[in-house]
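Notebook entry, structure prediction.
Reason for the run: the old model in the group folder had no record of what sequence produced it. Starting over properly, with the input documented here first.
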Amino acid sequence: MTGSNSGIGAAIARRLLQDGWHVTGLGRSEPSIDTAGFSSLRVDLCDPVALRHALNGLTVTAFVHAAGFMRVGELGHLDHTGGSEMWRVHVEAAALMADILVPKMKDGGRIVLIGSRTAAGAAGRSQYAAVKSALVGMAKSWAIELASRGITVNVVAPGATETPMLLDPKRKGVPPRLPPLGRFIRPDEVAAAVAFLLSADAAPITGQQLVICGGASL
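New structure, fully documented this time:
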């Protein structure tokens, strides 16, 4: 999985370890998890050559793409460099992972991509919305391709979640809004949804986007 060093990704990794999975984390920084069942591969997700090299030695029964970051800006002030980097991390890395790992994956495997409620569109977040909506289109396409193999592909799309990204100063100007639930989503709640989609009980669920937003979409 990607993104296991912080935030939602770290919560997912810990939940999967608790459930008995062996987790391999891919990322640039030193892993924050040091426990049995967890291993890590140091790799820059923006470097397709390095990522391909890291993935070529892996055979997995499931993968979770949770790495990501947000850059914001209104028209006239878009961060084009940041937008390109978001596309590489959120979309291109996911596509490369699937392209390499899925042909070796056993039938009945699982893929979960971490999206965002923002995929539906949000003022000042057009580039972020674009990359997250692209994940939904890819997931639905892969779900159709892989249905005959029993491999499911789904997107878990949280709303504002209590992570370092929520307080990232680079999102100044578009602060998070408290949902009707009266609190932000917790990372462990997102992790629980991912764990379910990876389970045998979720075998008939594929090509779906599960929005976890505390009522913000209502």
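Summary: The chain has a mean pLDDT of 93.
The old model has been moved to the deprecated folder.
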